[in-house]
Amino acid sequence: MPTQETLSATDNCSEKVQVIKRQEERQEKGNKVIIYKWEASDECGNKVLHEQKVTIRKTSQPTPPTGGVQPPTGTEPTQEIIVYNGVSTESGSENYLKFEPIENYKNLQIEIFNELGQKVYESKSYQKNGEVFRGYANVKGVFRKGKRLPTGTYFYVFKYQNITGESNTKQGYLYVR
């Protein structure tokens, strides 16, 4: 709340100018109103009044959300997912189909198909708990589950959700050697 300032006044009639300041408080339409008044007068009987009216309005406190889990705000990822699509069946910790960054995404699901459109791999929680594609089939069908896939081009469909629950799909190819 602003405080009442001290005003000064000058006058051509008299060198002595008296400034009296007053403050009034009242309620108007449920709001607190403060009126600051300054009255300047001289020895010749001249007077001038200056008023400043400050209205303090009541505002309601924000109401916390009720029921359910609310998504965090201001943390939506701004980075697009990058795909490292070269896969080697040789041993090594980084020899897998990798998506980055995934920290701000959830429900990572992938399906991988050979060039004939036959599914050779799927995961409902990709890159979680070491679940990654390293060039080996994990579904029964054309190739036996757990067997190394032939060198060549494969295709993936990667589905994921951002932190607000919006679903996204990324499709592309990868090369297995």
UniProtKB/TrEMBL annotation:
What name goes with this protein?
Gliding motility-associated C-terminal domain-containing protein
| Family annotation (Pfam families) | CHU_C
Spans annotated as Disordered: 56-77
Compositional bias (Low complexity): 66-77
Q: Which domain of life is it from?
A: Bacteria
